Amino acid sequence: MILENKLGITNAVELARAEEKISKTKALQLFTSGFLENLNAGTFHSLSEIHRYLFEDIYEFAGKLRTVNIAKGNFRFVPLMYLEAALKNIEAMPQSNFDEIIEKYVEMNIAHPFREGNGRSTRIWLDLILKKELNLVVDWSCIDKENYLLAMERSPVKDVEIKVLLKQGLTDKVNDQSVYIKGIDASYHYEGYTIYKTENLGDDQL
Ligand SMILES: Nc1ncnc2c1ncn2[C@@H]1O[C@H](COP(=O)(O)OP(=O)(O)OP(=O)(O)O)[C@@H](O)[C@H]1O
Ligand SMILES: [Mg+2]
User: Fold this and answer.
1) In angstroms, what is the span from residue 186 Cα to ligand 2's centroid?
2) Contact between residue 198 and residue 205 where contact means Cβ atoms under 8 Å apart
3) 85, 110, 169, 205: which could join 142 in a potential S-S bond, CB 3.0 to 4.6 Å?
4) pTM, entire model
5) To test ligand 1's pocket by mutation, which of 187, 190, 191, 196 has the most ligand atoms within 8 angstroms of CB?
6) 47-101 pLDDT, tens per residue?
7) Ligand 1 pocket check for 117: Cβ under 6 Å
8) Which CATH superfamily is domain 12-195 in?
9) For ligand 1, is residue 109 a contact (CB within 6 Å)?
10) Based on the number of CB atoms within 10 Å of its own CB, is 15 exposed (0-12), middle (13-18) or buried (19 or more)?
11) 23 ligand 1 Cβ < 6 A
12) Phi and psi of 41, rounded to 5°?
């Protein structure tokens, strides 16, 4: 299965390659243009603006909520019918210290608001909060991708591992482009989503 895209690409590998290249270029523009500075860190709106900016040339759904239920591995992200309420609650979560910020990040990952590109956009969103509240960011070049993914998979149950991992990666080089861009690197993994059904939703809504 391949996602419908604005590039007219029908081959999954080709799409992954194009998507990575374009979103990376857009991420650099996002960083250098000052666009991020106008966003209100920690809001859902700021995340959807980041997502839209990164993916608007590739997907029609850039910046828009997904319209299907999605799962990765054994984990089901927030069901569609609870998604908007969840986003409101997450937005209201405090973000005044490191632990609170990571707890908010973990919840936003559980929401997984978009059809694709949640990882990249949410890592930028996280950096925006860390920068505003603590004047720190994550140096993604120091974060082992395998360990990050294992910690993220574990995070809905227990968030201590992702907290330890990201804390080790904190830096005060908040304006360093190379520190920031590593978070947008090639998909941390290429596993796609499974679409699941819930009893309460008819097939036509999925
Ligand atoms: N089993 C899982 N349970 C919880 N979270 C997961 C799981 N697998 C992946 N994740 C999170 O979802 C992100 C991937 O989401 P998605 O594929 O939408 O984003 P992406 O930007 O395309 O990819 P990537 O983060 O790999 O660059 C991962 O970075 C990780 O944070
Ligand atoms: Mg992906």
Assistant:
1) 9
2) no
3) 169
4) 0.93
5) 187
6) 999 999 999 999 999 999 999 999 998 899 999 999 999 999 999 999 999 999 9
7) yes
8) Fido-like domain (1.10.3290.10)
9) yes
10) middle
11) no
12) -55, 130
